[in-house]
Design brief:
Elements lengths: L1 H24 L19 H13 L17 H10 L4 E5 L3 E10 L6 E6 L2 H9 L6 E10 L2 H8 L4 E5 L7 E8 L3 E5 L9 E4 H7 E8 L3
Antiparallel strand pairs: 1-9, 2-3, 2-4, 5-6, 5-9, 6-7, 7-8
Helix pairs in contact: 1-5
Length: about 220
């Protein structure tokens, strides 16, 4: 009886996680060009990201934050600044990981590509069965930081400031506004206002350091 209960509990948790990502596919935070804050120096991307979310959600105390800062700070510094300015927020520093299942596809004499990433192996298998293109398909899985915090933020139309790091490059903070099984959509302070940066989902999962800040609406 206990074993059956545990199996049912694990199945329910996995299904709930899947429903969360599916519901998030339909959601995307819209950030107006006039709310986009551009980066103006090395290391100031985090202030730009917080300012962009602050403007979007109506926090006047964050509107010009990037003009008040002249150097980068660590994540703890961002949290202290938000607390000082009395902004409603939640921070997340991932401690646990989860499996993601990547569906790979390769046509003869062509490079392989990931055509989708899923939280359950069953959905990855379903994606293969539903694809009619001739070629080879296979499933690979990788551990990444748990993404439930981000998926919930997108579902609630809040977005989140997230830090990514590519190789040995300097960490960069952006605003994640949407995602689906193929790509993540981001507002990047190094891009022009109104332009959305798109990144393959599997690369975002690889580069994301597990830290995020969600600014709640007042």
């Amino acid at each position: 009886m206990v074993k059956i209960y545990m199996v049912m509990k694990k199945t329910a948790i996995a299904f709930a996680a899947f429903l969360l990502i599916i519901s998030s596919l339909c959601a995307e935070l819209k950030i107006k060009p006039e709310h986009h804050i551009s980066n103006r120096g090395s290391g100031l991307c985090s202030w730009a990201a917080l300012g962009t979310l602050g403007r979007t959600h109506g926090y006047k105390q964050l509107e010009n934050i990037i003009n008040e800062k002249d150097k980068a700070v660590k994540h703890e510094g961002l949290i202290k600044e938000l607390e000082k300015r009395k902004v409603k927020f939640r921070s997340y520093d991932a401690k646990k990981t989860e499996w993601w299942y990547h569906v790979w596809y390769q046509k003869e004499d062509e490079k392989s590509e990931i055509i989708g990433s899923y939280l359950t192996k069953k959905e990855a298998s379903k994606a293969i069965k539903g694809n009619q293109k001739l070629g080879s398909y296979w499933i690979a899985r990788d551990y990444y930081w748990k993404t439930g915090f981000l998926l919930e933020a997108i579902k609630k139309d809040l977005g989140a400031a997230v830090t990514i790091q590519v190789g040995n490059d300097t960490p960069h903070m952006l605003v994640i506004v949407g995602l689906d099984e193929k790509q993540v959509r981001l507002v990047d302070s190094n891009y022009e206002p109104g332009k959305i940066r798109e990144m393959p989902l599997h690369l975002f999962l690889k580069y994301w350091v597990g830290f995020a800040i969600v600014i709640d609406k007042p």
